[in-house]
Amino acid sequence: MQSHDRAGPLAIWVALLVPALWGLYWIPLRYLEAHVGAGAWSNVGVVLIACLAMLPMAWRRRRTPGHASRTGLWSTALGGGAFTLYSVALLYGSVATVIVLFYMTPVWSILIARFRLGATISRWRYAAIGLGLAGVFLVLNGGNASGLPLPSNIGDWMGLLSGILWSISSTGMNRHSRLDAAISNFIFCLGALLTSLLLGVVLGAPDSGLPTEPDYGAILLASLAIGILWWAFSLTAFMWSVTRVDPARLGIFMMTEVIMGAISSALLAAEPYTLMMALGTGLVVLAGGCEAYSSRAGRPRPAG
């Protein structure tokens, strides 16, 4: 039986709703930052909560059948590092731009498959590269025809780097890890915690620092919500669904994060979102669809 035949209704809903939830991740994250004012250090507490929440689950599942090579373990931890970069990027850059840059992952994954793994590149995958690059060109240009369309701040650059690292880590996890979802996410969160500490040291805290009268109740509530709901619960559920939903279908489902992030930031964030940026976002979504279709078209058909 092929993997897509195992996708029951629950796995499909999880694969749809978790990326959509992450499209709204910037809202509680920026709410927390507004009360803490700690910049990259805000992520340390959030991910520490996630690690503590995942520890008992991972411990209970420690004897569950599964395996991972050293490459698989490092790839899983690197995935957590990629998500940390993405998380911090949302504090320093434009929400829509960071999300679109992160979702350049089909382009990087195709290039890794071609030049690192020697895979054959289909026409659909070349189309995905072209659409992805064109989409990012429009998003970065933002309606301004002057100058090169390059990331304009450290948040944009971290968003771009997070997508590249996620492509590398997801390739490694796919090829070298078959761990239980809870154990995998615990390692993922450990990698995120180490990266959060490193970014905190490198970037430091903003000059504004902690507000004069911090609302500790709001800080605790936001930290618990992000650490448990987003990092611990939703990512574990998503890793569970990955083993049950066809990869091509999963790739399309994950585009709900781009759509939800673009819509929510356009409505709620005081950031410019032009028609050209909206068109670029659509092209990046199409690039993900082309990559997903290429994966499905390239899979051998079952006999009979």
UniProtKB/TrEMBL annotation:
Entries under InterPro entries matching the protein: Diverse_Substrate_Transporter, EamA_dom, EmrE-like
KW Membrane (keyword) present: yes
Signal peptide: none
One term under GO cellular component: plasma membrane
Top-level taxonomic group: Bacteria
Main location class: membrane
Ranges where the EamA domain occurs: 11-140, 154-287
Keywords: Cell membrane, Membrane, Transmembrane, Transmembrane helix
Any coiled-coil regions, as ranges: none
Localization per Swiss-Prot or TrEMBL: Cell membrane
The keyword Phosphoprotein is annotated on this UniProt entry: no
Membrane topology: Multi-pass membrane protein
Membrane spanning residue stretches: 7-27, 39-59, 71-92, 98-117, 124-142, 154-173, 185-204, 216-238, 250-269, 275-294
PANTHER family, A to Z: AROMATIC AMINO ACID EXPORTER YDDG, OS03G0707200 PROTEIN-RELATED
Protein name as catalogued: EamA domain-containing membrane protein RarD
